[in-house]
Every structure is written in structure tokens, then in C-alpha cells.
Design brief:
Elements lengths: L9 E2 L5 H21 L3 H7 L12 H20 L1 E2 L3 H24 L3 H23 L3 H7 L5
Antiparallel strand pairs: 1-2
Helix pairs in contact: 1-3, 1-4, 3-6, 4-5, 5-6
């Protein structure tokens, strides 16, 4: 040991490509729910008072496609490790996905802006907690998971 009190994380053979594929499917299912709930998102986005630096609405699809992949890879890097903090970290990761899947239906489909704001505030807390827990296990996973802040 090199002076660190935390146990080293080691990769688990059971956490290979099938696990990554499953996490990618899960993350893209979250994206699909958002996509279905965001039927008139372009119109809603265009009707908002946006600053000059706001990205065009067409950019969100391609960007979030990449972001969901990085979220899946972050989860995979942690899920495949043998580490005492893995379960807690993956619980936080799962919570952030659940909050993520709820935001688009709340904001676009239901027009519940107050609840959507509460959801995104909780999502920011969940992402922060996940990143901090991931840091203890795999720094690459923590870096990849930071991408999902809206």
C-alpha cells in the first residue's frame, strides 16, 4: 500500500462487455423516455426567453446521445470493480438516472416547471454525490459522470 487508507479497486471478470452493453441499453432507455416525453420540446424551447449564448435546439439530441454513453461507461467502470464502496456508488448512479428520466416528462410533457426545478436540483445533488463516490473507486468514472449536469 502506498500510504492510502482506501482499498484498491480491482476489475471483476464478470463486468465485461455484456455489462457495458446492458448499461448502455439502460441509459438509452432513459433517453428514449425523455425523447418520447419531449414531443414539442423544440417549440417550448423556442418560446423561452433565451440568452444569446443558448445553444440551438437541434444540438441537444446529438450532445445527449454522447452524454448518455459517458454516463453508461462511468457506471460500467464502477460496477465492474470489486470495492467496498461499489454498491453505494451504484445506488447513487441509479438515483441520478431515475431523476434524469423524470425531468423531461415533468418539464415538457406535464409543464410542471416547479417540480422539474426540484427534480433538477435533486439531480445536481445526486450527480455530485455519485462523482464523489466514484472518485473513491475510479477517477475516470468520476470524470465521465460529471458530463450530465444540465
Amino acid at each position: 500500500m502506498t500510504g492510502s487508507s482506501r482499498p484498491p479497486a480491482t476489475a471483476n471478470r464478470a463486468g465485461g462487455w455484456p455489462l457495458l452493453l446492458g448499461l448502455l441499453i439502460l441509459c438509452y432507455a432513459v433517453a428514449a423516455v425523455g425523447g418520447l416525453a419531449a414531443g414539442d420540446a423544440g417549440d417550448t424551447y423556442a418560446s423561452l426567453a433565451l440568452p444569446a449564448w443558448a445553444p440551438p435546439s437541434w444540438l441537444f439530441g446529438p450532445v445527449w446521445t454522447v452524454l448518455y454513453a459517458t454516463i453508461a461507461v462511468a457506471g460500467w467502470l464502477v460496477a465492474r470493480t470489486v470495492h467496498p464502496g461499489r454498491r453505494r456508488a451504484m445506488t447513487a448512479w441509479s438515483l441520478q438516472l431515475a431523476l434524469n428520466v423524470a425531468w423531461t416528462p415533468l418539464f415538457f410533457a406535464a409543464g410542471r416547471y416547479g417540480l422539474a426545478f426540484a427534480d433538477i436540483a435533486l439531480l445536481a445533488v445526486a450527480v455530485t454525490a455519485t462523482v464523489l463516490l466514484f472518485l473513491r473507486i475510479d477517477r475516470r468514472a468520476a470524470a465521465a459522470n460529471t458530463t450530465q449536469h444540465r
